[in-house]
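TEACHING EXERCISE
Course module: macromolecular assemblies
Task: Read the component lines below, then compare them to the predicted structure of the full complex.
Student: A.B.
Group: 4
Components provided:
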Amino acid sequence: MSNRKAEIEQLKYAIFSLKKSPAALIGIFMLTIVIVIAIFAPYIAPHPEKVYDIDIKRRLQPPSQEYIFGTDDHGRDVFSRIIFGSRISLQVAVIVVSLATLIGTTLGLVAGYYGGMLGNVIMRITDAFLAFPPLVLALCIQAALGPSVSNTMIALSLVWWTWYSRIVRGQVLSIKEELYIESARTTGVRNFRMIFRHILPNCIGPVLVQGSLQMGYAVIATASLGFLGIGAQEPLPEWGLMIASGREFLPNWWWISTFPGLAIFWLVFGFCLLGDAIRDIYERS
Amino acid sequence: MSKASANESLLQVRGLRTRFYTYEGEFDAVSGIDLDIRKNESVGLVGETGCGKSVTALSIMRLIQDPPGKIVSGFLVFKGEDLMSKSIGQMRAIRGAHITMIFQKPMTSLNPTFRIGTQMADIISLHKQLGKKEAWARSIELLKNVRVAVPENVVKRYPHELSGGMRQRVMIAIALSSNPDLIIADEPTTALDATIQKQILTLIDDLRQEFGFSMLFISHDLRTIYNVCDRIYVMYAGKIVEFGDIESVFEYPAHPYFSALMNSLPKFDIKKDSLGAIPGTIPSLLNPPTGCRFHPRCPFAFELCERETPNLREVGKDHRVACFRAMEGKNA
Amino acid sequence: MSDLIQVQDLKKHFPIGGGLFSKSKIKVIAADGVTFSIKRGETLGLVGESGCGKTTIGRLLTRVINADSGKVLFEGRDILLMSESEFRSIQKNIQMIFQDPQASLNPRMTIKAIIKEPFLVHRMYNKGRGHIDGEINRLIKGVGLSPEHLNRYPRELSGGQQQRVGICKAIALNPKFLILDEPTSSLDVSVQAQILNTLKIIQREMNLTYLFISHDLSVIKHMSNRIGVMYLGHLVEMAPADELFENILHPYTQALFSAIPTFRNEVRRFNLILQGDVPSPLKPPEGCRFHPRCPQCRKVCETEMPALVEVAEHHFVRCHL
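Instructor-supplied answer key:
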């Protein structure tokens, strides 16, 4: 249809802008590597069987040709574990941000559009959540739910939706005053269509930008909770957990903690660069 | 409206070309124009969106931001000196002291977080070293000049507490504060109500008589220009297409664009069923038409118009037109 | 020709301030008992300066804002009393064209989607999708746009083109009544001429009734059959266009006409320059709202509000003189 054409033009311009920004390209490159690694993990990892198997004989071996990043105190191949760990990190990033944006955007839309008592209640709940330091709150929720990666995802989503709710509500309030909304109302557009066709597309920008940046924070938060021992549990190859388990072996057997740390840096930096690029494109359009 | 007879020249613009570099390409917002403003004269610069009139004003003040724009050629001779050769510091001294500017939306020119008196005092002390008390006193004096009823009250107010007309008086007072030779007004009354517009325009006229400055009045409103200016320049797509003494030009709009523009205005004295609309749209400056820029929309165009750009030629006393056809007296 | 629209004693005020638990005490009186009617096929021009309430009247008629009191009879029925669903059935007959063409179009919708929306909203797709596309093509041709514009976004069009889209959207479902709120104020002179011509053509073709709101007297004179002059929420004078310009009765109207610049051929009959600013609608003066600025103010004007009286044929004035 003809609408398709216009969307393709927009996409072309977006891709053009991306091409112009070296930061964006680097970010995409970094992320693509991680995504490919995650998808093809069993084929890329040199020792897939050594991710979980404990082999005392091969403990604490330094990086070598056979074990690129060395082995940890259980004799597991650090490199292969990192590769498999990428699946966990990516999963968490995507699921947490998706849930948080879904909950937050919905609540923000309702609070902003309908206002009144309902809007007030929603915003006060949001304020209540926002009053706690986010990581502390996540910690408490995780502690209550029990240690596991899925509970980490739930905990983080429950803490982070508040940001979207507040931002979206603010956007909705200002969009409601726009002339095209009045024009739509004069045409006879009703609430459902007004919200999804007119208001939502115009307030999604900050959500997208923040969402892409928050994927990086999600990775860090998960790693932090894993590091503290209340998130991911052994024997999962979660990167934060790996750092924690290698802590007592520093500095002699440095490779156990260092490489997972570098992996986290790589992924988060990639998300940040991409997030900045998305924000630049959005602001320009 | 005072008639400026053979007065001394104040500002001479020759061959001004201002170019902008954008994502879509480069284009000349102003494509080689000549302009003259004499002492004690009010000159109107008229045109529609994109014709380059505002860019011309900013170019004269050398306020074009680089990037994305730059004056690539031309002379700006002000009181005998070429402004193009001035340094940034020298330009700054000239701006505000000899050439000042009034903008369209006074709300955006005034800082909403400072009182009127503070802002006026700040600006006054830029060019004259005055103590705080003296600067405030001078501000009150200046507001009296622009016929503000109780200036002592106005200086204590914030911009949003004043009406549009009052804010514009403040802007005029600021522009007058250094007793400039030339005031450039870019659509100063467009955003104001009709009755207030009349007040402000009458005020400007009175002030011109009193203080003797020249004015470059930029507008898209032909009636205002007719009532305020001694001479007029008409711009289209970055070029000047007609200029001269105001009565001559309005009596006989020689350029097809200008005469079509006059035709498209609803009039008070003639009742018409439909207005004379100009077909087509304003050309893109990225790829302007060859030859005369108006030829694709001109009902009188012939093949020369596409090949060559017409020069400004005399078509009456103090009245020049850039049109091959106008020379033949083609329109009545 | 019967009356299509009858507005009776329409009032609207906007409270300022106030909080969760307190009612605000300050009100801006936008419309204070406005009464007029428009015949089928006629254009009524509404002119006045900022704060006079003319834009508010337009928005009250589309029910975008709620009136405080008064009646608006459309084809004899009071639309202010109708429920939402009742109103929806006649809503497509009352449409509006807005002052800022770019702001009136959703920046994230293509032109095609924008023009299609009225059809979708009022469920006019039972004749098949091809039918709607055909209608859209017919509409855009009628206003001077071309099919290539359909795939673009509003910001890619010029002001004039954007306003044409606004017109398409408004006439898509064959309305009877159009409110035009300063439709050409933000457009260049040459574009304004095109748009005004188009508006006249479609009015003839579709037998539309117009309420034309503007601050530009020359445009109002060109477009209107009758003209109403508003000041601080009141109609102070109303007359057929030609009659008004021949015979201006209200002092404010005289001042308004004196204030506009004219060309040499446009002879001015008055030269009344008002002093001072337009008073704030927050605290309108007692009695006749215009009395503080009126050069012919008398004792009675300070205390009593004059009524709108027919002084000459079809010529109404609100003044003690």
